[in-house]
Design a protein that fits this description.
Elements lengths: L10 E4 L1 H8 L6 H13 L4 E4 H7 L14 E3 L3 H19 L10 H14 L3 E6 L4 H12 L4 E4 L4 H5 L6
Parallel strand pairs: 1-2, 1-4, 2-3, 4-5
């Protein structure tokens, strides 16, 4: 049974990959991203978007296209930085042990910053992304660092994830 609006009590942090899929109708996962976005809006689930993700998005996307009226911008602060260092260390160690495969070294520090924001901000429950490989990274920081953040994969439709009928 789906939770009522007032029973949800959590927020989400949106990954750059989510925002790319949401804002580009030509993306394969656009309809999934749009479904999650509408679900979060309809259920009054606050959506955060990190300043780290804003920087990533602006590499090829237009800053003015971001849906600022519906998302909260989460600045990266000193508390996030402290946790990000621990998370990055755990992920670099996992990479050196062959527990994760990450071809681009920059992914670890950037993702670690966003993961840290999601873990430090106690109301954030999910890291919402189309990056299925980040699930393993989150599992590592949960295990090694005790982070309380869950991976939410938009490659599955929101109706399947939340057990609701998609009548739209």
């Amino acid at each position: 049974m789906a939770k009522k609006k007032e029973d949800i009590g959590y927020s989400v942090i949106l990954d750059t990959s989510f925002m790319i899929r949401l804002l580009s109708e030509s993306e394969k996962l656009h309809s999934n991203a749009l479904g999650y976005f509408k679900y979060f809006l309809e259920h009054d689930i606050p959506m955060y978007f990190s300043t780290v993700s804003v920087a990533e998005y602006c590499v090829k996307g237009d800053f003015d296209d971001l849906p600022f009226q519906n998302i909260r911008i989460l600045p990266f602060n000193i508390f996030h930085a402290k946790s990000a260092g621990h998370f990055a260390d755990a992920l670099f160690q996992a990479k050196s042990k062959g527990q994760i495969e990450i071809p681009n070294r920059l992914i670890i520090p950037n993702d670690s910053k966003i993961f840290a924001q999601g873990a430090v901000e106690k109301d954030i429950r999910y890291f919402v992304t189309s990056d299925i490989k980040s699930e393993r990274n989150i599992a590592i920081i949960r295990e090694v660092c005790g982070a309380e953040l869950e991976h939410l994969d938009i490659t599955k439709p929101y109706s399947e994830t939340f057990g609701v009928l998609d009548l739209g």
